[in-house]
């Protein structure tokens, strides 16, 4: 049998990363399993967004926030697996969880923290043959860097909050913004829509979809798109520098338990639990967006509180004599050596 872990955390978004840090702090042998190639969860969907609402943290870009979360998660040398999807969870006669992953491996753990958000999110791609070859150049499903769009002609496909938020962000960056949307009205927040409608840089084309991508001579980039206006059946040729497609996300929330009733579901994917992270299944705890209880907030700060509670509950589950919680965790003895190093460095600098 392979190594046994005290806790295995499923999902490497903010809840899973902070649970990883905190379980190390509580001296638990920890494994984190993430299905995507990169850790960070939903924050990877907004790398260039400025996050303002994490207490004590100055406004920070999503991408930098993920870097910091990962660094913190690694503090106590956990085992971290990426590109590994949990498919199935079972329990053996010794009360050990057996976690089966899509690479055919089995992982053994005394407890589990479900931090799998709403599942695995992938952007809904443009349904045009050959579109994928431009993903490395000027066809985007998220905004990788604002600099790329400076003084450019940017076409945004979509009319929901995601698309319109990007269009508003582009107002001070791009030279021209063309929003195309298949419906006859934008469905985003009214104030954001009003900002676009009153800006001369912006053209909004409703009842319109992208029909074709025309490449440049070198076939490396899209230089023009063919748009179809469905109300007039008109075709428009629109030159562009960049396209941002914001058509929502496909969600893969498939993950099975040996006993299907083992985790109570509130609706199609929220695990109904408690603010202590406990779920209906003994030994399985939950944190972050996947967890539902009265007063739960699906925000970054909510994930951290959930993580602390889930880890503390898991700790007591595997060791009933353990403290229910660490009252002042930054005074933990594990930090003493690191604190000494930091103070020494400060003294040298002075
Ligand atoms: C566009 C957008 C903007 C936002 N802006 C803010 C903001 O400004 N401030 C704020 O506080 N919050 C914001 N949020 C909310 C915040 O991002 C979420 O609350 C937070 O990411 C939830 O973290 P989580 O770890 O619970 O779930 P997620 O971030 O969803 O992470 C779950 C992870 O689990 C993995 N996973 C799922 N299933 C499996 C499986 N079977 N096996 C292995 N891994 C699996 C997924 O790949 C994913 O990495 C925003 C969300 C979005 C979508």
TrEMBL record:
GO molecular function, one term: flavin adenine dinucleotide binding
Record key words, sorted: FAD, Flavoprotein, NADP, Oxidoreductase
Catalyzed reactions: 2 reduced [2Fe-2S]-[ferredoxin] + NADP(+) + H(+) = 2 oxidized [2Fe-2S]-[ferredoxin] + NADPH
Cofactor note: Binds 1 FAD per subunit.
InterPro entries: FAD/NAD-bd_sf, FAD/NAD-binding_dom, Fd--NADP_Rdtase_type_2, Ferredoxin-NADP_redctase_2
FAD/NAD(P)-binding domain sequence ranges: 5-313
Pfam families per the UniProt record, alphabetical: Pyr_redox_2
Ligand binding (FAD): 34, 42, 46, 86, 289, 330
Keyword Transit peptide: no
Keyword NADP attributed: yes
Cofactor(s) for this UniProt protein: FAD
EC number: 1.18.1.2
Segment forming the signal sequence: none
Protein family according to the UniProt entry: Belongs to the ferredoxin--NADP reductase type 2 family.
Quaternary structure and interacting proteins, as annotated: Homodimer.
UniProt-listed HAMAP family: FENR2 (MF_01685)
UniProt name for this protein: Ferredoxin--NADP reductase
Provenance organism: Lysinibacillus halotolerans
């Amino acid at each position: 049998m392979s190594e046994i872990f005290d806790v295995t955390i499923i999902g490497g978004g903010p809840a899973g990363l902070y649970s990883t840090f905190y379980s190390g702090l509580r001296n638990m042998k920890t494994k984190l399993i993430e299905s995507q190639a990169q850790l960070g969860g939903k924050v990877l969907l907004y790398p260039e967004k400025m996050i303002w609402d994490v207490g004590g943290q100055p406004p920070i870009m999503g991408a930098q926030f993920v870097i910091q979360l990962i660094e913190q998660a690694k503090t106590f040398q956990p085992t971290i697996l990426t590109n590994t999807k949990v498919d199935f969870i079972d329990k053996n006669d010794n009360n050990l969880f057996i976690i089966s992953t899509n690479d055919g491996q089995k992982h053994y753990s005394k407890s589990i923290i479900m931090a799998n958000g709403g599942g695995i999110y992938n952007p809904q791609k443009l349904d045009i043959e050959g579109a994928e070859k431009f993903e490395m150049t000027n066809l985007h499903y998220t905004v990788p860097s604002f600099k790329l769009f400076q003084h450019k002609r940017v076409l945004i496909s979509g009319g929901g909050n995601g698309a319109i938020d990007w269009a508003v962000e582009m107002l001070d960056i791009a030279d021209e913004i063309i929003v195309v949307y298949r419906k006859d009205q934008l469905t985003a927040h009214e104030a954001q829509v009003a900002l676009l409608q009153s800006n001369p840089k912006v053209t909004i084309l409703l009842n319109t979809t992208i029909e074709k991508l025309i490449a440049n001579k070198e076939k490396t980039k899209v230089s023009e798109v063919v748009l179809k206006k469905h109300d007039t059946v008109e075709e428009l040729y629109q030159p562009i520098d960049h396209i941002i497609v914001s058509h929502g996300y496909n969600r893969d929330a498939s993950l099975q338990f040996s006993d299907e009733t083992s985790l109570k579901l509130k609706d199609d994917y929220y695990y109904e639990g408690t603010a202590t992270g406990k779920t209906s299944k003994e030994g399985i705890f939950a944190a972050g967006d996947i967890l539902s209880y009265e007063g739960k907030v699906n925000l970054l700060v909510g994930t951290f509180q959930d993580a602390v509670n889930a880890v503390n509950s898991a700790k007591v589950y595997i060791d009933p004599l353990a403290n229910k919680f660490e009252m002042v965790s930054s005074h933990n003895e594990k930090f003493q050596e690191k604190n000494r190093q930091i103070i020494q460095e400060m003294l040298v600098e002075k």
